[in-house]
Amino acid sequence: MSAERRDKEINGKIYSILLAPPSKCMSLCNEAITLFGPVLGSLGGKEWGQIAAAMSGTNPAALDDIIMKAVTMSNLCCNEQPISQPILFDKHFDSNRRDLYPACLWALWEQVNPFLPESVASILTTISLGMESQSPKDGQVTTGLGE
To answer: Tens digits of per-residue pLDDT, 22-53?
Structure first.
């Protein structure tokens, strides 16, 4: 049985993943529910500002861990080049920083979405879309805080 491949274009590059078998996704799904459960309980709607405010109470290390598990489990690639191992991941995203959250949250979303209750899946979709819309566009200059 071969894994299903999914592709997504982000900033002109094609990111791809392989869907992990359900037995591998179970712990990732449990972590997603545990991590995002408090966020779901605090939201009255699905607006990006509400989600960002609710996410401010989320443990950043736990979020990093679940995202990296999804990246590794997915065998994340960019333009057919593997980038899921730590050295390759850092090398790729060092020069493609605006792709980091859209690509990584997409990998998480694709792995857990089929197994989650619709309310959790909806929140992850909104977070992913919000991160993608907040990313600088190609050629867009960004400045640091206070500039």
So the answer is: 888 888 888 887 777 666 655 555 555 665 66
The letter for the amino acid at 101 is Y
Residue 62 β-bridge partners? none
What's the distance, CA 81 to chain centroid? Answer: 19
Q: Report helix, strand or coil for 98.
A: helix
What order do you get walking across the sheet with 81-82 strand by strand?
5-10, 13-18, 77-78, 81-82
- 27-36, 58-67, 97-106, 114-123: which has the minimum mean pLDDT? 114-123
Name which of 10-14, 67-71, 122-126 the model is least confident about.
122-126
Query: How far from chain centre, in Å, is Cα 6?
Result: 14
28 in Cβ contact with 111 (< 8 Å): yes
Sequence letter at residue 4: E
**Following CA atoms 134, 140, 142, 147 in sequence, which dihedral angle do they give, to the nearest 10 degrees?**
-120
